[in-house]
Amino acid sequence: MGFPRGVAAVHVLYVIDSVSRVGGAEQGLVAMAPQLVRAGVRLDVAYLKESPGGFQPELTAAGATVFGVHRPGRAGRVAGLRALVRERRPELVHTTLYESDVLGRAAALSAGTPVVSSLVNSSYGPEHLHARGLNPWKVRAAQAVDAVTAQGTRRFHALTEHVAQAMAGRLRVSRDRIDVVPRGRDPELLGSVTAERRAAVRAALELPEDVPVVLAAARQQYQKGLDVLLEAWPAVRRHTPEAVLLLAGSEGAETPRLRRLAQECGQVRFLGARGDVFDLMAAADVFAVPSRWEGLGSAAMEAMGVGVPLVCSDVPALRETVGSEDYATLVPPERPAELAAALIDALEDAAAAAVRVKAARARFLTCFTLHHVSGRMVEFYERSLRRSPS
C-alpha cells in the first residue's frame, strides 16, 4: 500500500512535547511516521520533555531522526529548537501540543522557517474554565500566548471540523487557514473480534467467557469523564450484577477520586497503562467513552476499527468521529443515569449492537485508515509550502 508517485519529498521537523506512550498525539505520530516516510517525507522529530521508555525506537525504525531538546527553561528550549532548525534546515516545522506550539513557532519564525501547527483539542472553552483543577486565569493567559504565536503560523491542521471552527475563533485566525485531517490507525494492527482472541485475552485477565465486560481506556483526567462512568456503574450492576468494568489508562489528577468511587461500586478493575488496548477491546462487550470534551476521540475511532459496541458522550467532536447513532450509542455528557441505561441496553440487545458495529467498522475503513489519513497529511504539507500535491 503506497502513495501515488510524483509527490515531491518534503523535509519536516515535527516538534512535540514528548514521545511518551500514553498520549494520543504521541500515539498518532508514531502510527503515522512510517507512512509519511514511505510517502517521501524526510521526517525529523524533536521532543521537549524527557521520555524514558518512550516511542524513540519506533520512530527511528520508521525512518525518522529523533532529537531530545531538554534544555532548562522555555528560553533554553526555544534556543535549542532554533539551533536544531538551523542545523537540520527543514522546509517546514510542524508543532503539536501547547508547549511545542508556543516554543516551536517562536524557534521556527526566528530561524526564518515556515511553521504549521496541529489543533488536537477544542481548548479554552467554557468547559476548560470550569474544569476541576484548572485555574481560569491561567487558561486565559495560555490562550493569549497561543493566539499571539498563532499569527505567524502558515497553516493549521485540525483533527475535526468542530476543533477547526472553535479554535479559529479562540486563536483569532481565519478558518480558511485550517485543514481538517483526522488521526488514523492501521486496520491490521487493530485486528478484529474473534472468538479465539476474546478467549485468550479473557483468560489472561482471569475473566469467565460469559461475564459481561465494559471497557474504558483513557488517562485518568477530568476531561475523560471516568468519574461519570463510575457514578453510572452501580445502576448497571443492579441490573447485571455479574458485570465487570475495566479501566485501562495511566494515572492522573483524577486517580484518587476515581479509586474512591470505585470502592463504592464493586466489580471495577484498574488495569493501568496498557500496550494491548486493542486486544482488550476485542474481549469487551461494550466500549465506553464518557468524555466531557474531545478533539477527535481516538479511542472511539479505534473501537470502531476493532469492532466493539460503542457507547460515548454526545459531544461535538465525538459525534463527528462516530458519525451518528447508526454507528454508536450517544449519551449527553455528565448524565450518569442515561449513561447507565445506554450501557445496559448495549449489553442486553446484542443484535442491535452488532448492526451498529458493522456500520461503524465500514465507516472506519472509509475515513480513518492510516493510508487514507497519511496521504491527506502529505497534501497538507504540500499545500503549506504552496506546492500543488500530485
Topology readout:
Layout: E1 10-16, H1 24-38, E2 41-47, H2 56-62, E3 65-68, H3 73-88, E4 92-96, H4 98-110, E5 115-119, H5 126-129, H6 136-150, E6 155-158, H7 161-171, E7 178-180, H8 187-190, H9 195-205, E8 213-217, H10 226-239, E9 244-248, H11 255-265, E10 268-272, H12 277-283, E11 286-289, H13 298-306, E12 310-313, H14 316-322, E13 329-331, H15 336-348, H16 350-367, H17 370-384
Parallel strand pairs: 1-2, 1-4, 2-3, 4-5, 5-6, 6-7, 8-9, 8-11, 9-10, 11-12, 12-13
Helix pairs in contact: 1-2, 1-17, 3-4, 4-6, 9-12, 10-11, 10-15, 13-16
What does this structure look like?
With 390 residues, the chain is an alpha/beta fold. The protein folds into 2 domains: 10-184 and 369-384, Glycogen Phosphorylase B (Rossmann fold, 3-Layer(aba) Sandwich), CATH 3.40.50; 187-367, Rossmann fold (3-Layer(aba) Sandwich). It has 17 helices and 13 strands. It has a 7-stranded parallel β-sheet, with helices on both faces. Strands 10-9-8-11-12-13 form a 6-stranded parallel β-sheet, with helices on both faces. α10 (226-239) packs parallel to α11 (255-265), α10 (226-239) packs across α15 (336-348) and α13 crosses α16 (350-367). The longest helix is centred in the C-terminal third of the chain and has 18 residues, at 350-367. The chain is globular and about 60 Å long. The two termini are 17 Å apart.
